[in-house]
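User: Okay, second chain of the day. Same drill as before: sequence in, structure tokens out.
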Amino acid sequence: MTDQMDPEKQQASAWFRNLRDQIVTAFEGLEDSHSDGPFSDQEAGRFEVTETRRASEDGSDAGGGLMSVMRGGRVFEKVGVNVSTVFGTLGERAQKAMAARKGLPGMADDPRFWASGISLVAHMQNPHCPAVHMNTRMFWTPHGWWFGGGSDLNPCLEYDEDTAHFHGVQKEHCDRHGSAHFPRLKEWADEYFYIPHRGRARGVGGIFLDDHNTGDWAADFAFIQDIGKAFLPAYLPLVEKRRSSDFGEVEKDAQLVHRGLYAEYNLVYDRGTKFGLETGHDANAVLMSLPPMAKWV
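Assistant: Same drill. Structure tokens below.
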């Protein structure tokens, strides 16, 4: 596949930026509306926005994005919403890894790539509020293109009704594209977000897909958009319900221990973390997902 797909790339990049804007606005709205319960007497949090730039080995422009991080808010202890569009040439290790995993011939002969996406991780002040991760992305090489991403819920204190709501909204959005998608993507998330060395999942799951290319770019793009659109209605009601709940040292301890589990997964197994560091993207943006505080026992 040699088509540059510039119009499609521009559409995808613009959508990820638009989704980022929606989420940042909604999260700052949660901060403003938190008027009772723990941390409500603090100043409402706001995102600090930093432009990230990436350079090729010869110093030429290789894209970048926006890193938006809120720390020490009323509701969010730390939340990052990053969006980026990067391009260039894959290094030898990345070429081999992609050729092996994707089965794409010719990577060594033409290792150009383009990637755009949004990545979000939220760590909450109140242990009753679940942490969450969301990512959607498009990847292009001269040899093929695909979409990937999803979102998963990571509570330290599990509530069955919260899990049911989160999965239910995701199912509703996936079902717009066929009833077979949600069961497959839910099972994929259970497998992907599993931590082998701990023998457990890092949370209560969600949806995940990668290498998504049916040959119909418009249909696949619409699907990845709906995965992104599902995030706010799946997550916001859970935060609104739990953010005013009282908690003590036992609950906070459980949160810190669970954050350690989350950090282990992201540093050892997460493909996005590995790819970002391999391709020279801003390390602070790549490691934005790490919690502000964690504990190992």
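The first helix runs from residue 6 to 33.

User: Thanks, on to the next one.
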